[in-house]
Design brief:
This protein is α+β, with helices and mostly antiparallel strands. About 40% of the residues lie in helices and about 15% in strands. It contains 2 helices and 3 strands. It has a 3-stranded antiparallel β-sheet with strand order 1-2-3, covered by helices on one side. Strand 1 and strand 2 form a beta hairpin. The radius of gyration is 18 Å and the shape is elongated. The N and C termini lie far apart (about 60 Å).
């Protein structure tokens, strides 16, 4: 077809092609939000330490809703795909991540950051 000459296969629909920029925008937004969350956690760790009660997804959700403010009123504890941002607590670091576009944990498109505890 006409589109195959510009790098698209015949299996791709116009809707698929139109969706690609929106997906890229969601990925970039998630990267920015993860960086903001990383900074919040880092600052809390450096000042008084991240509150000890933040060890579960439920308490991390409340933490994000209090610390991240949305002018549009959206739930700041959720990534663009509607999944909660995740927190991993380890002996020496915190990990913060989103499942990414495929909405599956521990896959190649996860978006994440680390914060050292000290």
């Amino acid at each position: 077809g006409v589109l195959s000459g510009v790098g698209y296969t015949q299996q791709e629909t116009i809707a698929d092609i139109a969706q690609a920029p929106l997906e890229i925008a969601s990925i970039v937004r998630t990267q920015v939000e993860i960086a903001s969350i990383q900074k919040l956690v880092f600052l809390d760790v450096q000042t008084d330490g991240l509150p000890r009660g933040i060890t579960s997804q439920a308490t991390f959700k409340v933490y994000l809703q209090k610390k991240l403010i949305s002018t549009g009123g959206r739930d700041t504890s959720l990534d663009p795909w509607g999944n909660p941002y995740r927190l991993g607590v380890y002996q020496d670091k915190y990990e913060i991540w989103s499942y990414g576009p495929d909405q599956t944990d521990d896959s190649s498109d996860d978006i994440w950051a680390e914060v050292p505890m000290n």
